[in-house]
Amino acid sequence: MPRLPPSLFWRASKEISPLAARLLPVCRDLQSAANELRWIREHVKSTQSPVPDGLRFWSLVEKRATGVPLQYVLGNQPFGDLDILCRRGVLIPRPETEAYTLHIANILTKSSSTPLNILDLCTGTGCIPLLLLHSLLASPSVAGPISLHGVDISPHAVRLARENLAHNIRLGLLPASIQGPNSSSLGSGNPSQNPNPYYTLKFTEQDIFSPSFLSSHFPSSQQPSTQPSTQSNPQPTSKDMPKNDLDLLISNPPYISSSAFTSRTTARAVRQHEPRLALVPDPISSLLTAYSRESSHSGGSSQKVYESCHPADVFYARLAEIVGMVRPKRVVMEVGGWGQAMRVVRGFVVDGWGSHNSFSTHNMSSGDGSGYESSESKSGSGSGSGSDGLLGSGRGQGEYEIEVWRDEPAGENDAKHWAVVDQREVAVRGRGLARVVYLVRRDCWEEDEGRKG
């Protein structure tokens, strides 16, 4: 990071305030320092405290000057039309997350599904299901009911998510929902007893790597249909698994490797102040013991997938397994850039993530050669035979279509509209960097395409 010239500090002190000069090292320019100084002053004026306003203002500026993120200093962050409370120990919502949340909400408003069932894994502050709820309730085309469920391993995150639901109800940004005997049931309960019967929303603490996770949420996913077979000890395929009534599985999981987290590729403020638990997956070796307890169902395929995947990608391998068992209509997975997006795409389309039988890859037209080609795509090809994978062996042949969304998925496409992974074309939508890997079940994709036509 380049050093700031002394003249900039002089200008900040003279043109704005001496305190603005204190913020320059973290803000990096005069306008940002002036904005943050104003927001801190407005926060002090709008909140009550026994501490005198002047002293509180100075102390918050000093706190921010040490590098504490502004969201932790102020205690909140706008997210769409909502106000999300932020506290240390829980990841701060990002604008890119807001953009794709609004985009998938817009897609869901055009869906014919009713009721809508949504599951958010690694929910953090609860910002994703809360904004989805707000957007869906605002749409006249969604008749409800809407059922949302946010899951996180952190008890601090779950408490904050529940508080954010109550907070936005108090602000009038969300309609009141039923309140049970304790705060944990806020937003959940019997819809028929609900003063606003259009939704239920609950947040629960659970480890998605737990062997009991799937059976506790989707009992039917553990019971593959039995098909006559001449094979000895046959393994179920994704097609044998019953479909569940899950309209959307969405997740912003930890996706930074341990080495990247400790290097300069991760911002210092993130390393020092945001929770590592929400950013860095556990080592693969620590997950294999839990997965060995599930091997009777997966035939050992889970362990092989985890042993071979990139350290930053272990959550995507787990999400893929959940997708293969539950078969939701749509899946949104936030990723950390092009390299990871292409690895995740490759996991699905080449390595057979989410399927219980691997599948071969077939060559596809590479267009005019102007698309993005992942370097990972040249490192090998899928193994096995047959085409039982979730994404089949070619466009239009699998159960799911796959896309990559950029930071602004609703924006006009950048020049490159597709990526190539092992000579397979993958649609790329929007503007900016790769931000989401999106799966849509073929029946829903055909419905979406039919509306476009």
UniProtKB/TrEMBL annotation:
<dbReference type="GO" id="GO:0032259">
    <property type="term" value="P:methylation"/>
</dbReference>
<protein>
    <recommendedName>
        <fullName>S-adenosyl-L-methionine-dependent methyltransferase</fullName>
    </recommendedName>
</protein>
<dbReference type="GO" id="GO:0003676">
    <property type="term" value="F:nucleic acid binding"/>
</dbReference>
<feature type="region of interest" description="Disordered">
    <location>
        <begin position="214"/>
        <end position="247"/>
    </location>
</feature>
<dbReference type="GO" id="GO:0005739">
    <property type="term" value="C:mitochondrion"/>
</dbReference>
<feature type="compositionally biased region" description="Gly residues">
    <location>
        <begin position="381"/>
        <end position="394"/>
    </location>
</feature>
<dbReference type="InterPro" id="IPR050320">
    <property type="entry name" value="N5-glutamine_MTase"/>
</dbReference>
<dbReference type="InterPro" id="IPR002052">
    <property type="entry name" value="DNA_methylase_N6_adenine_CS"/>
</dbReference>
<feature type="compositionally biased region" description="Low complexity">
    <location>
        <begin position="214"/>
        <end position="238"/>
    </location>
</feature>
<dbReference type="GO" id="GO:0008168">
    <property type="term" value="F:methyltransferase activity"/>
</dbReference>
<feature type="region of interest" description="Disordered">
    <location>
        <begin position="361"/>
        <end position="394"/>
    </location>
</feature>
<feature type="compositionally biased region" description="Low complexity">
    <location>
        <begin position="365"/>
        <end position="380"/>
    </location>
</feature>
<dbReference type="InterPro" id="IPR029063">
    <property type="entry name" value="SAM-dependent_MTases_sf"/>
</dbReference>
